[in-house]
Amino acid sequence: MRQTAEGENIRAIAGDPTWTDYPLTLKARKLGGGEGFLVMFHTSDIDNPTWWNIGGRGDTEHSLQGGDLAEDHVHGSIETGRWYDIRIELHGGKVKAFLDDKLIHETDLKLIAAFYAAVGRDLSAHELVVQMVNPFSEPMPVDVKLNGTGKLGSKAKIITLSNASSDAENTFEHPDTVAPKTGEFTGVAPKFSCVLSPHSLVTFRISEK
User: Fold this and answer.
1) Are residues 23 and 58 in contact, defined by beta-carbon separation less than 8 angstroms?
2) What residues are paired with 86 via a beta bridge?
3) Are the C-beta atoms of 91 and 78 separated by less than 8 Å?
4) What does the domain layout of the chain look like in residue ranges?
5) What is the spatial distance between Cα 12 and Cα 207, in angstroms, rounded to a whole number?
6) How far is CA 45 from CA 51, 80, 134, in A?
7) Is CATH 3.90.180.10 the classification given to domain 116-208?
8) Cβ pair 29, 81 in contact under 8 A
9) Are 158 and 203 in contact, with CB atoms under 8 Å apart?
10) Helix boundaries (H) for the chain
């Protein structure tokens, strides 16, 4: 099998998504491009894959990503024109990933929370601080209940740190690839709803009267 088209999200799938314990073996060779291989496993939704990213982040590391995996990153790269033996062993809730018979990753399948949040007070600013994280690639509607608080203002300063790509990172050449954006939210109440941007850390700063 050879990929001839250039672009992103060009994928081929095989097998049954209900499979759980199995070995996956293949040979792969990179013909060009800036990164290596994406090998999917335990993927029931091709738009939300679980995979071994070999030679990712500009061909600087290998990592297990997606699904119910706690991400594991290891430095490494892939040479152009060289054949590699790839093996992923899935058994009893464990994942082992081998490159040319060398064990690169060994980890457990762990449930990753679908939503993260933290609340505190900035006493000097007299503000309630609510932080929420959306780790997914789609917008996330959220219902917020502010139990046990005093009188609050109806508006909040909202600071959003996000990027459509989960692999985005700042560099010296592009220091603002991921940068905070400030706005205003006018729907603060003891119970209110909002929508979190994909791959975002959102901070609400709500004045306390």
Assistant:
1) no
2) 26, 99
3) no
4) 22-108, 116-208
5) 51
6) 12, 30, 19
7) no
8) yes
9) yes
10) 56-59
Phi, psi of 49 (to 5 degrees): -80, 160
Burial (0-12, 13-18, 19+ Cβ within 10 Å), 64: buried
Three-state DSSP at 96 gives: strand
Which among 72, 32, 35, 29 is positioned nearest to 50, based on CA atoms?
72
Q: By the 8 A CB rule, do 95 and 109 touch? A: yes
Is residue 195 a contact partner of residue 132, using CB atoms and an 8 Å limit?
no
Q: What is the pLDDT of residues 98-145, one digit of tens each?
A: 999 999 999 887 655 667 899 999 999 999 999 999 887 788 999 999
Phi, psi of 76 (to 5 degrees): 175, 165
Q: In this structure, are strands 191-196 and 140-145 parallel, antiparallel, or unpaired?
A: antiparallel
Q: Which residues contact 123 (CB under 8 A, 6 or more apart)?
A: none
The pLDDT value given to residue 111: 52
Q: Mean pLDDT, to the nearest integer, of 155-168? A: 87
Residue 57 DSSP SS3 = helix
DSSP label at 32? S
**Which amino acid does the sequence have at 157?**
K
The answer to whether residues 14 and 7 touch, using CB atoms and an 8 Å cutoff, is: no
| Superfamily name and number for 22-108 | Exo-inulinase; domain 1 (2.60.120.560)
| Residue 164 · residue 178 · CB < 8 Å | no
Q: How far apart are CA 143 and CA 173, in angstroms?
A: 38
- The answer, as to whether pTM is greater than 0.70, is no
Partners of 2 in beta bridges? none
